[in-house]
Amino acid sequence: MGAANSGTTASVVVVGSINTDLVTYVRRAPGPGETVIGDRFQSGFGGKGANQAVMARQLGADVSFIGALGDDFYAALTLENFERLGINADGVMRVPGSSGVAPIWVEADGTNRIIVVPGANDLVTAEHATRAIAAIPHIDVCVGQFEIPQAVTAATFSAARARGAVTILNPAPAARINLDLLAVTDWLIPNEVEFGILADRAIGAAFAVSNEAMAEFSRRIGVRLIVTLGSAGAACVGPDAVVTRLPARAVTAVDTTGAGDAFVGAFAVGLARGWSEIDSVRLGIACATESVLRPGTQSSFPSAREAAAILADIEGPGARA
Ligand code: RIB
After folding, report:
1. Residue 318 pLDDT more than 60?
2. Which domain holds residue 134?
């Protein structure tokens, strides 16, 4: 096994995607048939699953990853990155063909547009994933997203839950949720757009992520709900349907790519450490806010040192248990 899993440290398993991000920074993205000159290009490690795993690891959790890579150069680099960070990659299966890639455009105000080409991510199997879960000694929290087949995430969540884990689903990129996946999900963390699609609400002037809409949706599906709100922080629906909105520190964003993943990975660590959900949300917001200050995806996340300071800040005097 790659990294040690002690059984005493917070243990997070991520089942999901691995991509290489090919990021172009451009003042304004081109329209149809238009060519524009970009400012800068950078490639880096990405994929919603891998990003969440890396954020959790920077916060000191034991992290195991379940997913798939192809037989290309990107696969070798990704495995080296996991090894360097101490992420257990025993659950990464290898398949012939290309690994996942994501061409990304980031405009001057930090907003991004992403195309994901799944490659190997589409080929991970439920059999592989459940075998991988069985081989991990201890699991506190299992996290999934929508960049691998939902049936694989459902099988993994089911196996992880049978081992006593709490499951967190980040329904991104936006799509409808299969009922069998919903049935094994404890926490759902969409952003505003994803929430609008899941809750069947039109996005536009008339739609805001109202407390009523969130509370009603959470009650209807029987799953705990957090909606991330970008620069406005996040909203958490309590078990009593009371919605708590937690603000984010005001910053000037350089690149928002992966901020949602930083939130999810950090929230998972909070829960795995036994923190209250509100402090776990605070941890998520703090890490996501830090990530928008730098360009890139995983490269923009707080370092292990910065992450330790964020943890200490939230755990310090005045922290809610
Ligand atoms: O959430 C950001 C991520 O979405 C990028 O890293 C990209 O690879 C896509 O998965």
Report:
1. no
2. 11-18+46-98+119-319
